[in-house]
Amino acid sequence: MRFDVLTLFPEFVLGLQSYGLIGKAIEAGRIELGSIDIRNFSRDKHRRVDDAIFGGGPGMLMTPEPIYESIQSCRRAESKVLFLSPQGRVLDQALVQELAQEEHLILLCGHYEGIDQRIIDHYVDMEVSIGDYVLTGGEIPAMVLIDSISRFIDGVLGNEESVTEDSHYDGLLKYPVYTRPRVFQGHEVPEVLLSGDHGRIEAWRQEQSLEVTRQKRPDLLKKSSDN
Ligand code: 4H4
Question: What is the pTM of this model?
Fold first, then answer.
């Protein structure tokens, strides 16, 4: 998987190169990360990348030419261009797994009031949102996508970790988990987890996963019963 991030803050995105498992995966070549400064494609003598909005309205918009040139600078036949936007399909684990099947994702980060609609209409394959709120820029959403998608790339998670035990993998939340000490501030680990009886442990975990989901996200239970 290769990610190319089209951004006005290239250094910010490259911080991922020294960020935990993502940094290790980049170093090991499991994932590739490029960060392209849209401003380098401005033909304006002041390197402007924004302008006033036709028809009036508050704020500024990112102009289409520098964005178009930055897309063309890295686009390949297999590329998918994603625009991070509050108007996009809201990211969930299903979309993460769908996007993890791609080979090359170009992540376009907006600023100001967004970008010229003609880029969205003619050069963006999918708008993706990380939630129903508006941020100052698309870089943090882009990093959310890179992190969540990278967990599904072979070799990024250690052998001892697996996405199949994650919350939302099967549409439910993860069961409660515990580690040493067995007694912490007088609070004990559930006895079943110390029993060594893997059948009992698996059954307990499945029931707990349902109960946690029922308590915290009953909407997920409705969604899974509708499917
Ligand atoms: C893009 C603001 C588009 C407004 C932006 C619009 C998110 C989000 C986000 C900086 C950029 C904002 N990106 N999930 N939420 N014209 N990006 O807030 O569509 O209203 O991903 S617009």
Answer: 0.95
